[in-house]
Amino acid sequence: MAPTKITTLLFDCDNTLVLSEELAFEACAELANEILEAKNIPDRYTGPQLLNEFVGQNFRGMMVSLKAKYKYEMDDDELNRYVLKEEDKVIAKLKAELRPCVGVDAELEKLEAHRKYHLAVVSSSALRRVQASVEKVGHAKYFQDTHVFSAATSLPKPTSKPDPAVYIHAMEVLGKKAEECVAVEDSKSGATAAFRAHIKTIGYVGSYEPEKQAEMRQVLKDAGCCVVMDDWKEFEGCMEKIEAGEV
Q1: Residues with Cβ < 8 Å from 186, sequence gap 6 or more?
Q2: Statement to judge: residues 12 and 118 lie in one domain
Q3: Alpha carbon 76 to chain centroid distance?
Q4: Does residue 74 register a pLDDT over 70?
Q5: Which of 16, 120, 192, 214 lies most in the core, judged by the most C-beta atoms within 10 Å?
Q6: Range(s) of the domain holding residue 221
Q7: What molecular function does GO assign, one term (predicted)?
Q8: Strands 200-204, 148-150: parallel, antiparallel or unpaired by DSSP?
């Protein structure tokens, strides 16, 4: 492969920059169970069960999937009420307990110091949640407000990864082409979205439990990641491989 000139890095947020998924899915499970009870459906979810089944999807996407799975009725107004309720619950948890992914702070500091790339966040989560997350852990200084994109909020029609729409939208706003971008993703749905947008993607498995990392490395490779890292300290080496045209 020929060497590639990369100008822009597009970071997923949840469990890529910040350890938010476990906290968020606790709140999501409470609301999912409230909905199932209201619809007279006996099944209930714990946070880890919901995370395992729907990782990488935003709350709206999860509710659409649950609706299809259990075949109950929910109009747009009711769905929107639950989406707003979920945002408030999750943001409260994040503001209280959120931590950055191990090692990411050092890499962001280096990227900021070198100013070689444009940096942006491209997430499935609601914009309020993403902004609360990056602010809580001190990452907001690395991303201009106009460089934080949400599949749930930034698009004319809300969607969720693996739909590539949010990546395509981000590139349009930033004035970038896919071949000059690199994405960083931790989930199958996120990696699939970036792949469908024709963006080379670094997979990250450091936010998973050690016993699940080998499985997720393969999942991310199968979803289109050209290289996978266990730890953020490997990021620079991954970028060197991509820019040299080795992957």
Answers
A1: 12, 14, 15, 16, 56, 203, 204, 205, 207, 208, 216, 220
A2: yes
A3: 24
A4: yes
A5: 16
A6: 8-19+99-243
A7: metal ion binding
A8: unpaired
